[in-house]
Design brief:
Layout (H helix, E strand, L loop, with lengths): L2 H14 L14 H20 L5 H13 L7 H37 L5 E3 L5 E6 L13 E10 L4 E4 H4 L3 E4 L5 H7 L7 E6 L20 E11 L1
Antiparallel strand pairs: 1-2, 2-6, 3-4, 3-5, 3-7, 6-7
Helix pairs in contact: 1-2, 1-3
Length: 230
Amino acid sequence: MNLKKTVPAVVLGTLLLAGCGQEEKVKLENHVDQASYGVGLNIGRQLSQEGVDMNADAVAAGIKDALSGAEQQVDDETLKAAFEKLREEQMRKQQALNDAAAQAGNDFLAENAKRDGVTVTESGLQYEVLASGDDSQPTPLPTDTVRVHYHGTLIDGSVFDSSVERGEPAQFPVNGVIKGWVEALQMMHPGDKWKLFIPAELAYGARSPSPAIPANSALVFEVELLEIVK
């Protein structure tokens, strides 16, 4: 959890999510009410993605005290300590998830490497040839730009990105993507379609690029090299 981003978001959330924990629904009859609800909804979604535990009734109490000018029920030092404890708890949870993702990825790749048709390179990248193009055509250089179709999933099959589902190929420089892709693309000919099994260290490593991809995740891609763009 990014404390610099999350703590201000939590504080802002306490000022905007009025109505949490109330039995009666908030009236959203005019544009001010509706916009206010939208802001609260966006902040709530952000906190939900970060997995922050919030007590809706306490949030509502903080809002009421702030807007009415009432004396705060918890002093600043206690609030600071509470935010710090929340940050530490989130870090422990995230580390446990990261460790679990790393172990699951390692186990998956170890078993996958035993399958017929799977090639393992020196770096640890694994690939399976699904279709072959014209091997008389050149393979891309690191500085080349390519057009590809791809379908990316976690090892459990969860889709996190897919040009195939969007119906629009992607175009980018070979050296502008993750290491596993850079290595694989330079071995592929136009028309080739490979399934890549990429260890975390050849993907995003300990970094989580989006909520859909946990840190230390091994990734699976079906990649079709359509052309080297001239």
